[in-house]
Amino acid sequence: MAAEPPAQTPLPLASRDAPEIEWQLAAEDLAAVGRWLALPARTAGLRVEPLAPQVLRDTYFDTSDWRVLRAGFALRIRQEGPRTEATLKSLRSARADRAERREITETLPDGLTDPEGADGPVGSWLRRTLGGASLHPLFRAHTRRDRFAVHPGAGTGQIGEIALDDTLLLDATQRPLEQLRRVEVELTEGVPETLLPLVDALREVCGLRAARENKFAAGVRAAALHPPHP
């Protein structure tokens, strides 16, 4: 039986183990969404402010017999500038109306390319789960991300983040496969209901719709991979 993820105990600053709650929306015109977010009028008293954009280079890994997926997770290695992170993302959401999944992340030390060698919760889980089997890349995702912080209208604390993602999916050999344009609204503090009016407004005003599949599922499909059911 696959190893269980590590218990949610206090972690080093470079690691985190927490639920991820977000809405994933498919978009045809990200620029139009960005223009709407820049308008001074805001729905339900929420305030939106731009953040620094990001360039993300993700590679998803598994073994030849899909041990990570069969344990219910996807393994992503993310590079953003000099920083590299390894993340285990649960494949099953606790809800149907939004993505509500467990996410376990740790920062990899400089020069470390094999996440199994990491000292934190991701490396530990991989060593227990893989049983010596080697990881290999499944596909890659290169993303240009424009970000916006969401604040309550009368407060200063951040309660959410909006990401406008223009993503190119590539196979393991870097051959381009498919372009994805997504708007993701993630809860960072408080309860999900505070962001629902904003999500509903994005759907109505910007013509967005719920994404049929997350990036991992889209990459697996675009790369013509055939994993077992987790």
Fold and architecture overview:
The chain is α+β, with helices and mostly antiparallel strands. The protein has one domain (19-222): Hypothetical Protein Pfu-838710-001 (Beta Barrel). The chain has helices at 30-37, 67-70, 121-130, 196-206, 215-222, and strands at residues 15-26, 46-62, 73-80, 83-90, 99-107, 136-152, 160-171, 176-187, 209-210. The protein has an eight-stranded antiparallel β-barrel, surrounded by four helices. The two termini are 13 Å apart. Mean pLDDT is 91; it is low at 5-13.
Number of structural domains: 1
For the record, give the distance between the C-alpha atoms at the N and C termini, rounded to a whole number.
13 Å
| Basic shape | globular
Count of DSSP helices? 5
Element order: H for helix, E for strand: EHEHEEEHEEEHEH
Structural class: alpha+beta
**CATH topology descriptor:** Hypothetical Protein Pfu-838710-001
Task: Please tell me how large the radius of gyration is.
Answer: 18 Å
Mean of pLDDT: 91
Q: Report low-confidence residues grouped into runs of 5 or more.
A: 5-13
Q: Major β-sheet, in short?
A: 8 strands, antiparallel, barrel
